[in-house]
């Protein structure tokens, strides 16, 4: 009677063939489906995307367009701003920027004030080129640079992100390039001296050690 019951249950619920007896593609699909959680929609099963699981990441056209727009805005914000009609070449602009190691004037979030304009005039009297650092939103750097140039009689050379480069307004372009070349020479010599200073100190130390050793030997001989 027990054997008959087992046979009846087997006939009522037939078993599937093991995965190895299925074709390769069908076996792979069966194994993959077994790993997915239950209650998925057909689209989620096709895409392989579900909460807390791994699958293909699908991006809608609107999201992709938004990402491209944001990337374009970031690139435009990071690009240098050169006033229209500027006669500076790219290599000349690089020299002008390199000739000023750091910003000599800093602006707050409120932008340029009469005090800033007065300070810039004093700086331009002794420096042909001045870098100004804006600590606020970089999108306002161009407007701040134009305001500084207009209020101080300077020339706006270029704006790079939050840094504004202005030049003495009455200085011709050739003289300004000559000033930049002289400043670059000073900067190069300064770095060369800093680089050679440790070697010079080591050489002086070796000389002092040698003289001290010779003096010691002489003292021992005299003794």
Automatic annotation (TrEMBL):
Residues 83-179 form the CRM domain. SUPFAM superfamilies: YhbY-like. GO terms for molecular function: RNA binding. It comes from the Eukaryota. Keywords: RNA-binding. Residues 190-223 are annotated as: Disordered. The keyword Hydrolase does not apply. The keyword NAD does not apply. Residues 193-209 have a biased composition (Basic and acidic residues). InterPro entries: RNA-binding_CRM, YhbY-like_sf. This is CRM domain-containing protein.
